[in-house]
Design a protein that fits this description.
By secondary structure, the protein is an alpha/beta fold. The chain contains nine helices and seven strands. The longest helix has 17 residues.
Length: 271
């Protein structure tokens, strides 16, 4: 079992992964009100391939550390810890909101910067979030501050609300499989590691619900066009092109079975 603590568990980190939880690595429908609360009780609803990708990063990058942050309240800490443990995510620091009335934007930015101030030796920060509750703007501010410390920073945004655009210098992804390709581009995932993730994701397509593979309230078609698939395959080593193509083809067919069942609301600052 991993551990997910209230206080910093590391004083040094060469590479630091800061990951949002809800709608980034967990299918939790943050903008869906009561449905979101129900999903917070589920401790096994991770997006397919997310924990395997994070574990692969841990294997390949000595000195990498993980920080998980959510706008969820402290009284649900046991549920968040159970989710991270049951889903197999690497151990790390878990940060939840103490004051439910505090703006999510202010809270996340403040907590991230406070934790970064405690860690020495950071050379690279990878920020992973979604486009439901302001991660794009929060991470942009963090990147500006880290640039002053000459820290290399990369931002990846999970597209669960396709109507919102990704900001400049940020990279969109629609599944952890695509995120793996992007991290491979950065050299954070090796050829061999990418092959493992492709193989695992292919298996996951048979055993996961649709919404744990692609968010069921986004319009997937623009992300799965033939043009996009070919562009993604151009980033794959030659010996992995065919298995990667198989996964992308299966995803393109899956989108036709995913329906927009919920009306999206504006994100709430209070949660």
């Amino acid at each position: 079992m991993g551990f997910f603590l209230l206080v910093s568990i590391f004083a040094r980190a060469h590479t630091l992964v800061i990951s949002d939880i809800d709608d980034t690595i967990r299918a939790s429908h943050s903008a869906a009100g009561f449905d979101h609360l129900i999903r917070l009780m589920d401790t096994r609803n991770s997006f397919a391939g997310a924990s395997e990708l994070y574990r692969q990063l841990q294997v390949e990058r000595p000195g990498i550390q993980f920080m998980y942050i959510s706008g969820g309240p402290q009284f649900l800490r046991s549920r968040y810890k159970a989710f991270l443990n049951n889903s197999g995510f690497p151990e790390g620091l878990l940060i939840l909101k103490n004051n439910p009335l505090e703006s999510s934007k202010n809270y996340k930015y403040r907590e991230i910067m406070e934790q970064l101030s405690k860690i020495d030796g950071i050379e690279q920060v990878v920020l992973i979030g979604d486009n439901v509750q302001y991660d794009e703007t929060i991470y942009k501010k963090v990147k500006i501050e880290l640039a002053k410390r000459n820290i290399e920073t990369h931002i990846f945004i999970h597209q669960v609300r396709s109507s919102k655009n990704v900001l400049s210098d940020q990279t969109p992804f629609f599944t952890p499989f695509v995120l793996a390709l992007q991290l491979h581009d950065l050299g954070l995932v090796s050829h061999q590691g990418l092959g493992k993730i492709i193989s695992f994701f292919d298996q996951e397509l048979d055993g996961r619900s649709n919404e744990e593979i692609l968010p069921d309230y986004m319009r997937q078609s623009q992300y799965l066009s033939q043009e996009i698939r070919e562009a993604l395959l151009n980033r794959v080593p030659e010996f992995l092109i065919e298995p990667a193509r198989d996964v992308l083809d299966r995803l393109s067919k899956l989108k036709n079975t995913v329906h927009c069942r919920r009306v999206l609301h504006q994100p709430s600052d209070s949660y």
